[in-house]
Design the sequence.
């Protein structure tokens, strides 16, 4: 419990701790999004939207 009380002060004063914490949170967010996409069946990789195809579709009607 003592360590938990030191986190806000370390976040303010220690740049290495600050950036490591931000990187860890971003990694967890990307991991969660990846897991949700995998469970949802969107694990094909790559983008489904291509500007050239969208432009071609718009021009041809």
Sequence:
């Amino acid at each position: 419990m003592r360590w938990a009380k030191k986190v806000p002060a370390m976040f303010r004063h220690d740049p290495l701790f600050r950036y490591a914490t931000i990187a860890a949170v971003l990694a967890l967010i990307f991991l969660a999004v990846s897991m949700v996409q995998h469970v949802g069946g969107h694990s094909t990789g790559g983008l489904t939207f291509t500007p050239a195809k969208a432009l071609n579709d718009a021009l041809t009607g």
About this structure: The radius of gyration is 21 Å. The chain has three helices and no strands. The chain has a mean pLDDT of 82. The longest helix spans residues 15-40.
